[in-house]
């Protein structure tokens, strides 16, 4: 298990919440902004961070507007590991 990535996701509430939201369905940055009630710039930064670690994937990378994101298998594994770690406490 990549404990550095687990720690990275757990240390940022928005990172964790983004993975949880994307596990349920594909979403746009605007969808996530509405759910979280935070500035779009925070959502965009979080998406870039998670995409950089291959935890999420942009399904429409060529589009400038209305990009859809989904969680990757790696992102699902990290969420599963976080659930194991947090349920033991």
Number of helices: 5
CATH class: Mainly Alpha
Kindly identify the CATH topology.
Answer: Arc Repressor Mutant, subunit A
Strand order of the largest sheet: 1-2
Beta content comes to: 5-15%
Helix and strand string, N-terminal first?
Answer: HHHHEEH
User: Uncertain spans, ≥5 residues at pLDDT below 50?
Assistant: none
Give the helix/strand class.
mainly alpha
What's the overall geometry?
globular
Q: So, the CATH homologous superfamily?
A: Winged helix-like DNA-binding domain superfamily/Winged helix DNA-binding domain
Task: Provide a compact summary of the structure.
This protein is mainly alpha-helical.
Structural summary, described in words:
This protein is mainly alpha-helical. 63% of the residues lie in helices and 7% in strands. It has five helices and two strands. Strands 1-2 form a two-stranded antiparallel ribbon. Helix 1 (3-10) packs across helix 5. It is globular and about 40 Å long. The mean pLDDT is 94.
What tags apply to this protein structure?
89 residues, mainly alpha, Arc Repressor Mutant, subunit A, two-stranded antiparallel ribbon, 7% strand
Topology record:
Elements lengths: L2 H8 L2 H12 L4 H8 L3 H13 L3 E3 L10 E3 L1 H15 L2
Antiparallel strand pairs: 1-2
